[in-house]
Write a structure and sequence with these properties.
alpha+beta, eight-stranded mixed β-sheet
Amino acid sequence: STLYLTLFPYTTLFRSELFCGLEKNNPGYAIRQAVFVHEQGFDPNLEFDEKDMTAFHVLVFSDSVPVAVGRFFIMEDNVTAYLGRIAVLKEHRGKKVGAYLLRELEQEAKKRGAQFSMLGAQLHAKGFYEKLGYQPFGEEFDDCGKMHIHMRKTL
């Protein structure tokens, strides 16, 4: 889908593409590598996992340039989508790309029967997700050396 966002003095066009599975030649792979491996220091052997082959991935383009990616899969309860690996290239943050990506992930999950979405947010991103309607629950947890908190939302 397409969203026009007017930012004086120019207009930015966001659009998204949905993929099932993430191959190394997909631009989303390079975005995750740039954000999680190079910028944040995650182990590349842990960043890319077996869920990548079966999850749905949303790739966001800004003026035809790939700038963000995220994935989701439907959990065993068949009504909860687990969102993750949400990455926006550093130079495109603060431009509503992340909010657009989340909305696209949620919409695609709803099309597949999800009534709820859940994610594990890095603590520094908790406020971002709260602004988009997510509520934290449970205890903070360490994921590969970074503290996270589970968050959920009714779709």
